[in-house]
Amino acid sequence: MSAAPQRVIIVGGGPTGMTAAHALTRAGIDFVLLEGRHEIALDAGCNLVLSSMGMRALGQLGLLPALKKVSSPVTKFQRLDHKGRDIGDTMFFTYIQQSHGYYPRVFSRYNLMQVFYDNLPAEVRSKTLANKKVSDIRSTEHGVVVECADGTSYEGCMVIGADGAYSVVRKYMRELALKDEQRANTEAFVNEEKPFLTTYRCFWIRFPVLPGLKVGDAFETHGPNMATQFFVGEDSAVVGIYERLDEPTRDPRRCTVVDEKPFVEKWGNLPLTKGTTLTIAEAYAQKMDAGFINLEEGVVKHWSWGGRMVLAGDAAHKFTPSTGAGCNEGIIDIVVLANHLRRAFSSGAPSPDKLNAAFKEYQDARYELATFGCKLAGNTTAAATWPNAIYKFLDLRVFSSKMIQKFFINQGVATTAQTPVFDYIEGEEEIVGKVPWVHAIPSRTQIV
């Protein structure tokens, strides 16, 4: 059999997968991207938040001007309880801007994905393929073969699984690990079949910018078993309604349109904003689109297998969206992974051993940070949904303090400042705050 192409197969065309497409393009590594949905740019789910570290990485890829045009900065959350009473603003975003020079920015998924797609070189866009639902992944002597439900197949030397919480790449990784004869007597390299726990589900509603709302507004409603996050953008407003399930589960029920009416009847009278009478029911009555998603949480133990497959983003670690960290962490996964892959591919198609070493370095760099971020996001969602008196007290009496908020941000400043950058892409530092970045964006003379 002839050697497999020196090509990376990216499975998943969301923010993590498209970041990988840009990163590999800049590294000079051939790839093909397979997305199961019918389009790369789709408007689905809640809005996404990009922080200074995510925007900085995408700025290295030349996307910053286009991203600014389709997003809105968020300076603070205005908070209220289920009865519409003011429970204090959270100023985390303002304190982050002071430290790192940039307010987080809110995007619709469609606008973010369109920026990713439009800013790929024209000759590269043909490598991003929609309607490609993966039906099988096989490891061969020289590489991997990915087969799709439409009968097509793609051969490469490795696969990046950027295909979300229900990752098909992770599924085939597990199956191959279980079949590996050399490891038949141990499950040391086998992931759990269901690695994520679901404690919350989210009902999201997109609707027009109604009177009394202005671009950049951000609100949260907190209270027993339910919290909301509400953002107002240029073209629409989006609210995510986080409901605590009766019991955590590794087998969450998939909700459909028939579940929407009972959900709105249950929570519809709850307020979304300060200073207006807007409720969940009124937002739903004006809806442009709506739907349910489960909010899985957890970190997969093994992010790669056999020097052939590696996971990134939600396929490797899944956060609740309360801190807005999930998308950013997926982007930084690709920064670290791409740096290692560029070196691995520097002298041709790398061996499985060489890729295994790169994958290990990547996971070693990212695992603890992902674990901490997952725990922080889960605790933030728990605080907003008041599962017990302790969380309620913390939410109302502790986290409402501006001094406490600033203290917590300051605890994370040093970690954020150490965020890596692409070590092979030159550029200028456009995001600058009072805390310097440890890893500077390289200049031409620094790139080897």
Give a description of the structure:
This protein is an alpha/beta fold. It has one domain: FAD/NAD(P)-binding domain (3-Layer(bba) Sandwich). The chain has 13 helices and 19 strands. β9 and β10 form a beta hairpin. The chain is globular.
CATH class: Alpha Beta
Total count of domains: 1
Radius of gyration: 22 Å
Helical fraction equals 25-40%
The number of distinct β-strands equals 19
Label the overall shape: globular
Give the helix tally: 13
Distance between the termini: 34 Å
Taking pLDDT < 50 over at least 5 consecutive residues as the criterion, the unreliable ranges are none
What is the arithmetic mean of pLDDT? 93
Name given to the CATH architecture: 3-Layer(bba) Sandwich
What structural category arises from helix and sheet content?
Answer: alpha/beta
Strand adjacency order, main sheet: 5-13-14-15-12-16-19
Oligomeric state of the chains in view: single chain
Q: What is CATH's topology name?
A: FAD/NAD(P)-binding domain
> Sheet with the most strands?
7 strands, mixed
Fourth CATH level, the homologous superfamily:
FAD/NAD(P)-binding domain
Provide the β-strand percentage band.
15-25%
